[in-house]
Each structure stands twice: as C-alpha cells, then as structure tokens.
Write a structure and sequence with these properties.
- By secondary structure, this protein is α+β, with helices and mostly antiparallel strands.
- It has 8 helices and 10 strands.
- Strands 2-1-10-5-6 form a 5-stranded mixed β-sheet. Strands 3, 4, 7, 8 and 9 form a 5-stranded antiparallel β-sheet that branches.
- A hairpin with a 2-residue loop joins strand 7 and strand 8.
- Helix 3 packs antiparallel against helix 4.
- The longest helix is centred in the first third of the chain and has 13 residues.
- The radius of gyration is 18 Å and the shape is globular.
- The structure holds the ligand Nc1nc2c(c(=O)[nH]1)N[C@H]1C(S)=C(S)[C@@H](COP(=O)(O)O)O[C@H]1N2 and molybdenum atom (MO).
C-alpha cells in the first residue's frame, strides 16, 4: 500500500468513526498487518492502527517547488482568550513554553531559547479530515529533544499539548495528545517558523506542533505547554483531544 492509499483509507475510516469501507481494500495492500486489521476489526483499535502505520516511517518530504501557493488556515485562526491576548499585546515577548507533568526538571523556555536549539526544517503535506491538503515548510526543534531537557520520568506515557484557544467557545481549551514515544519521531517538531517566516497567528503563533504522520487535528496550534502524563483520564473529556472528546475523530489520527 502506498502512503497515499494508506492516507485515503485511514481518512475514510476515521471520518466514518469506526466502520471501514471494505470494498476495494483488498486491492490496496498485501501487508499482513493490514489484512489482519481488516479481518479483525469493525472498529479499528488503537493497537491495530499503530501496527498498520509503522511509527518510525518518515512522512514524505517535498521540494520548494511543490509548496502550496496559499496554505489554508483552519479551526481557530485568531484566538481571543485572555491568556492569548496577553501574549499578543507585546508581540509574544513574554511567551514561555512550559514543559511539565512527569518530568524531573519542569521547564519554561522563551522563543529565543527554543530557536537556539538545533533545528529541523521539513516541507510536508498537511491533511485535514475535512478533505483538503496543503504543502508547507516548517522549521522548529525536535519535540523529543526538548522533552529530554526536562527528563521524562519512567511513568510518563503520553504528551499532552495545551493550547491557548477556546475553539468551541465553551470555556475549554483546545488540546491534543500523543504517545510519549511518538514525540521522538524525527519529524515531530515544535515549529516556530512556517514558509521561512515567523509562524503567523492564523497558523498557531508563536509555537505549534508538527507531527507529520498524523492528520490535521493532531497538529496543535497556539501551544502554551506540554505535560507528560501516565493517563489521559481526567484531562478534558478523557479521550485525548478536543475533537476526540467530541466523538468525531479517533485519537490515533495516523496517516
Ligand atoms: N489550538 C488549535 N490547534 C488546532 C486547531 C484549532 O482549532 N486549535 N485546528 C486543527 C485542525 S482541524 C487543523 S486542519 C489544523 C489547521 O492548521 P492550519 O490553520 O495551520 O491550516 O490545526 C489543528 N490544530
Ligand atoms: Mo482539520
């Protein structure tokens, strides 16, 4: 199965919530994991989805010439929460990215400190489950490297991304989460630049995450903090993310 086929397949599975359209799928693929997945599952389990998409595989990277002339902004585009307005009031000069939870040394990093760390630049395709894709360039620091500065404790299993915006206008903040091990994927970065300029507000200024093997809703914008936790229970609605809690999209979100 090519990456593109896998992406389309999983997008369908995810939008459908659980039911997987089987027609034509046998043409898609010969991998044993994929067949086992189809044979066993009416609802894709998290373990099956992780088996289907090997976690260490890299997402395709593109050339400058392939970049989208316009990159669509989606979800929150101009947060109005008090904490975000306080940050924009002086151009993010007071911004501190917090790393907390199950770490030995909680951190508060300024944008200058993040920029001083070794960087990675990647041109990748963002796939939103709503049915659009854009290719853009992202520059940032490996998430795993930042977490290592804080020192994850052995019990830490998940990384929770805390955002500054209230997408549903219900007082709750957008949030997302991944397995801690997924933070160490080479293309999991905390991005401060997009398309060779500082990350603009519609795309998540001053810092967002890029997880290039995952769908759009996992790419949390307006990051205030990450917390390492042992369990997602008790965080938001307990399903690991804003859209996951709403019942619309599944937690894995892999492509
Ligand atoms: N904090 C926050 N992050 C978010 C969202 C949001 O509303 N708030 N929307 C998500 C969705 S559904 C998509 S497709 C992408 C859109 O990123 P973009 O605006 O850079 O295109 O951000 C994701 N991250
Ligand atoms: Mo999305």
């Amino acid at each position: 199965m090519t990456d593109e086929q896998r992406r389309r397949f999983l997008s369908r599975a995810i939008v459908a919530g659980s039911a997987v359209a089987l027609a034509g799928c046998n043409k898609l693929n010969d991998s044993a994991g994929f067949r086992a997945f189809l044979a066993g599952a009416d609802a894709p389990t998290d373990a099956a989805l992780h088996a289907l998409t090997p976690e260490d595989a890299l997402a395709r990277e593109f050339t400058e010439a392939e970049m989208s002339p316009v990159f669509k902004a989606n979800g929150s585009k101009n947060p109005q929460t008090p904490e975000y307005l306080a940050l924009t009031a002086n151009g993010f000069a007071d911004y501190r990215f917090k790393v907390g939870g199950l770490v030995r040394t909680p951190l508060e990093l300024s944008l200058d400190q993040l920029r001083a760390l070794p960087s990675r630049t990647q041109i990748t395709r963002h796939d939103c489950v709503e049915g659009w894709s854009c290719i853009g360039k992202w520059k940032g620091v490996n998430l795993g490297r930042v977490l290592d500065l804080a020192g994850p404790m052995p019990a830490a299993k998940y990384v929770v991304f805390r955002c500054a915006d209230d997408y549903g206008h219900n007082g709750g903040r957008y949030y997302e989460s991944i397995y801690l091990r997924e933070a160490y994927h080479p293309q999991s970065i905390l991005a401060y630049d997009m398309n060779d300029a500082a990350l603009p507000i519609p795309h998540g200024a001053p810092l967002r995450v890029r997880l290039e093997r995952k769908l759009g809703y996992k790419q949390a914008k307006y990051l205030l903090a990450v917390d390492l936790v042992e369990s997602l229970a008790g965080i938001g609605g307990g399903k690991g993310g804003y859209w996951e809690d709403s019942g619309n999209y599944i937690w894995h979100g892999g492509i």
